[in-house]
Amino acid sequence: MVGEPVNLNEFQELARQALPKMYYDFYAGGAEDQYTLEENMEAFRRIMIRPRVLVDVSRIDLSTYVLGYNISAPILIAPTSLHKLAHPEGEVVTARAAAACKTIMALSFTSSCTLEEVASSCNAVRFFQIYVYKRRDLSALLVQRAERNGYKALVLTADSPRVGRKEADIKNKMTLPKLKNTERFLSLEASSDNGSNLAAVAKETKDASFCWKDIEWLSTITNMPILIKGLLTREDAIKAVKVGVAGIVVSNHGGRQLDYAPATITVLEEVVQAVGGRIPVFFDGGVRRGTDVFKALALGAQAVLIGRPIIYGLAAKGEYGVRQVIQMLKDELELTMALSGCPSVKDITRRHVRTERERLHSML
Predict the structure, then answer these.
(1) Is residue 122 part of a domain?
(2) Distance, CA of 296 to CA of 264 (rounded, Å)
(3) Which end of the chain is more exposed for a tag (fewer CB within 10 A), N or C?
(4) What is the number of structural domains in the chain?
């Protein structure tokens, strides 16, 4: 590829060129047939924007609030693993880019930098993603460390009692490097006869019994608000409200867990309607354009989380690449808002999009 990338898909190609095949496949791949991975993006293409004209859009305001924190645009950095496989400085670089872009980064539980290193790298709002291990004391220790180091919320990932089957990782014999946050407490020596130890480590360490009633335990060990990530149904959204979480992230883990789970954009509205405004709903999965951000906001998301494109920017161009990725999405969202007659984020409404279901219904 010649010249500077002009969209997020071109960053993916730069990352492919920059990374060893094993690491690129680890970041880019999905579970089994990768249907959900691909459908996350394809489903956006079936939603049309309904622009309004002759609206004063001489000034566009992208800013919004997430859990009371003002950010420059409704675009957050999702928790993603092992940034040092993409860049020598890892999550520290990603955090600096988030601070420069005035947005929030959710640090992954399986980060390759410690949560203390990331916290000291810049002055910005940060969230911390948590899984729950069989050793609850280890999970509690990590939560306490996050709170002590100024993280502002927990992102509880709920869709991973086991690790999805990613065939590229098996073929590449991908194994986990040491995890800085847990290396003194947790062994990654689990063996597997398929060459990759990712699933074996998860099976030996993650608490597959963790369920709704245990969120009460999690809330007793922290003062941080808890967002629950990985919900795809009305039924689970209602349960999330009942157990008192501070928000929901509609997510299918980027298509990395259960293949043939629905594309997240196709179930976002179902979750939003079930919640009924009682807690905020955020969105994760398949966002590659500012028009995608606009569509998710129109269907009720308060903000979107970006995962793989951040990694691609990091691998291609380091901190500058991450900042470029975020800025590209912001620029595209700003243009979409202007051309759709929305001067501010709060002006984006359900009436600004038309789903495939509505299109098909109108043809009957």
Answers:
(1) yes
(2) 10
(3) C
(4) 1
Phi-psi region at 284: left, alpha or beta (left = phi > 0; alpha = psi -120 to 50): beta
Residue 164's Cβ-side half-sphere holds a number of Cα atoms within 13 Å equal to 23
Cβ 288 vs Cβ 309: under 8 Å:
yes
Domain region containing 66: 8-362
How far is it, in rounded angstroms, from Cα 228 to Cα 341?
Answer: 33
Indicate whether this model's pTM tops 0.90: yes
Element (H, E) at 105: strand 105-107
Structure tokens at 204: 């030996």
Active site positions, annotated:
253
Parallel, antiparallel, or unpaired for β 105-107 and 353-354?
A: unpaired
Q: How far apart are CA 66 and CA 74, in angstroms?
A: 8
> 37 lies in a domain?
yes
Alpha-carbon gap, residue 71 to 342, rounded angstroms? 18
Model confidence over 236-259: pLDDT tens digits? Answer: 999 999 999 999 999 999 999 999
Average pLDDT, the chain: 92
User: Binding site for glyoxylate, residues?
Assistant: 131, 253, 256
Contacts of 361 (CB under 8 A, 6+ apart): none
Q: What is the pLDDT confidence band of residue 3, given thresholds at 50, 70 and 90?
A: confident
Annotated binding site for FMN: 108, 129, 157, 229, 251, 284-288, 307-308
- Residue 2, domain member (yes or no): no
What is the tens place of the pLDDT at every residue in 129-151?
A: 998 888 888 889 999 999 999 99
Q: What is the CATH number of the domain that holds 179?
A: 3.20.20.70
**Binding site members:** 108, 129, 131, 157, 229, 251, 253, 256, 284-288, 307-308
Backbone angle region of 82, left / alpha / beta, with phi > 0 → left and psi within -120 to 50 → alpha: left
Token output for 298: 């129109």
Interval 310-334 mean pLDDT? 98
The span from the CA of 49 to the CA of 46, in Å, is 10
**Spatial CA neighbour of 283 closest among 74, 19, 10:** 74
Question: Tokens standing for 354?
Answer: 């038309």
